[in-house]
Amino acid sequence: MKKNSNDVLLEFNKVSKKFDGVQALKEVSFSIKEGEIHGLVGENGAGKSTLIKICAGIHNSDSGKILLNGKEVIFNSPVDSEKAGIRVVHQEVSRILCLNLSVADNIFLGTNLETSGLFFLNRKKMNNKASELLKNLGINLNPELKIGDISPALQQLSLIARAFYLKAIIIIMDEPTTALSLKEIDNLFGIIKKMKEEGTTFLFVSHKINEIIEITDKITVLKDGRYVDTIENKNVSIPTLTSMIIGESKLNKKLDKEVESHHFQRDNIILEVKNLNSRELKLKNITFQLYKGEILGIAGLLGSGRTELLSILFGINSYESGKIFLNNKVINIRNSRQAIKNGIGLITEERSMALFNNLNFNDNIVPVIIDKLANWGWIDNVKYTGLAKKYKELLGISIPSVKTSMLSLSGGNQQKTLISRWLPSNIRILLCDEPTKGIDVGSKVEIRRNMLDLSNHSGISMIYVSSEFDELLKISDRILIISRGNIVKEFTNHEVKKLTLKILNDEVYKYTAIDEKI
Amino acid sequence: MKKIFRRLETGVFIAMLLIGIVISILSPKFLNFSNILNILRQTSVLGIMTMGITLLMISGEFDLSIGSTFAVAPVLFIDLMSREFPVILALILSLLIGVLFGLINGFIVTRTKVHSFIITVGTMMIYRGVALIISGGWPKSLDMIGVSNHFIMKALGQGKLFGYIPSPIIWLILIVVICWIVLEKTTHGFKTFAVGGNIEAAKMSGINTDMVKIINFMTVGFLAGFAGIISLSYMGTSSPTMGSGYELDAIAATVVGGTAIAGGAGSIIGAFLGAFILSEIRNGLVLNMVDVYYQEAALGAVIIIAVIINTQLFRRLRKK
């Protein structure tokens, strides 16, 4: 089976892709050789996901070529890509599974199912075949189980079994380990190595640098949608790779602290969380304080509990034990309405969760304060439109009219709209979950400036969650590190002033690594 | 020009004109003032129910029980009057039962989170049962209890403004205007669009989404009962089986008028035109002496064509 391992299997040739004016990929070229495990790394927004989606047939590239075994291929749908032998295991496996069906059903879904006669499924044959496929991967799993009832790790392995059944020649794995325990990761790596021996090629995408170094043969680095380099994974150290991903100059240079001119009241606690626990959300003994007018950065990776913590403070999820104090009084927030009444607002990680795409820009500014814009339920049109115009000016949102459809706004302008939604309300605390996610660099700077202005002028306190640590350094007064549902470290205001990106990065990964060993 | 094509109502307005042109070519009697008034009068009962359904559907819910509520209100009205209740008190109580039925629907749907489609299928049967129980299964007429000349009956059904315009038309226009104002000018209207467009986002903006839905369910119940009483006042009789199937007519009229089945978008004027189209077609079929048995089938076909014109053709124009 094993062919000459010097043959190029998959080649990207100047692949470019633009979304709403944001250049997600710019002339990316590199190649993957047959039988290798190729790592792909980069910061958020570096273009990893876009590249994978092009391979999976979800997006089309604007220009450039993809060559498979030397022949140009164009995938217009996931079916095309699968037919060509490319199998993508996406980050959120549950989204591409039919959770109501069995493991075996999911393995054979959309393939030539095992049938007896023309129409009747042969369950016995399907289940036997599925068992056999799973056993080949070293898993003992009853294929009749509903796939929604098994762990994410097993769901992922079922998809790999499917890839095996479909005789995939290259398997692309997008952040496969985020939902897995250390033991499950070891098991997965064992399977990947075994499959590699049998001739399968892998493209392995991860932001966990230690894993990338452990499993891959070669590593390609992307940055801001551009190709940086492909390196042999021999003697590569974590610091070298990190500096390639973030950029050498950025890493060591003392960052321009946008927060320099920012002031907060150090002796005045507005929000205090004490021993907050939630088994369901995997949060353990969360304790911290937020000062008046402060911007508190929270650094954590995906799945660290950062989003879950904010969801509790905003009343979306409940907690089992612990107390939340607002201005030294215990508060019990059971839903978002109560959170808003207590002066707490939230900017969600997923913009689509908060946007009204059926409405216009001006309508998206007002939902929080709509009752204040009306007399006896009758909307005051002058105030309504005036507010939209005011924030369009104030935040520099460039659209032709306040009645522009929300759908036609760019990601940056959508996010500014969501920020301005909270400005006219009387909130005192703004919870921000990845507020600059998926936004181009220019808009990111503007949004951070907006946030700082907001805090400076109206004294609003913020909890600012981000996985882009350079952003945290630029904007935060203090930084907490959250890992596996625990707050593991605090950098005081004094420490943050001297903190470099390298140190923060190392700290976050250090705690993640320590946790995983336990 | 672009702006006009973007409006939800444009497609249904053009559909109405096209259908009108076809009918008037086939039958010269169609296009005269008294026939148009006649169509409007025939639209009034369905139109009033459609207004409520439109508000409710924009907020993302259905109500299939309105055909039954449509029967309960007039049946109760007649029953109370035959028990010597003053007409005005009987009227108020009969209108309140519609509101109560809507409240029940809204309460169950928002508490249980079971889809309103199935909940209101259940209440549709229960409410129909209530109509049968109150009436004992018999139709009754206003003449039987001697109130057919009461001024309230005149005002609701048989009277004519300036001796010319039947009062159901006046009520229809009044309700269209009120519902348009509620949807376009009030906070409740805004919240209705928000809840139907993205319920999670509405919750996160502090909107009481359950309350918005319950108010819309109550409005639908009230308008269904009111339409039933208008119908009684005009026809002079009520029957426990009246109004069955009207819920589907109202949903059809709403969707023809550009309201999204999934909620979040819709138009009161469009829904009014949608209801008008349904009566227009029925009228045209009668004028052209189409066999009664063919009429329903033809109506169904035209509804589908009208929806296709409005959604498919105009979606493309709207995008430009």
Characterization of the model:
The complex is a heterodimer of chains A (about 525) and B (about 325). Chain A has about 525 residues and is an alpha/beta fold. Chain A is built from 19 helices and 24 strands. In chain A, the strands form six sheets. Chain A has a six-stranded mixed β-sheet, sandwiched between helices. The longest helix of chain A has 18 residues, at about 440-460. Chain B has about 325 residues and is mainly alpha-helical. Chain B has 15 helices and four strands. Chain B has helices at about 1-5, 10-25, 35-60, 65-80, 85-110, 115-135, 140-145, 150-160, 165-185, 185-195, 200-205, 210-235, 245-255, 270-285, 290-320; strands at about 140, 160, 165, 235-240. Chain B has a two-stranded antiparallel ribbon with strand order 1-4. In chain B, strands 2-3 form a two-stranded antiparallel sheet. The radius of gyration of chain B is 20 Å and the shape is globular.
**Biggest interface and residues each:** A-B, 28 and 23 residues
Strand content of chain B: under 5%
Cα end-to-end separation of chain B: 11 Å
- What is the N-to-C order of secondary-structure elements of chain B (H for helix, E for strand)? HHHHHHEHHEEHHHHEHHH
Strand order of the largest sheet of chain B: 1-4
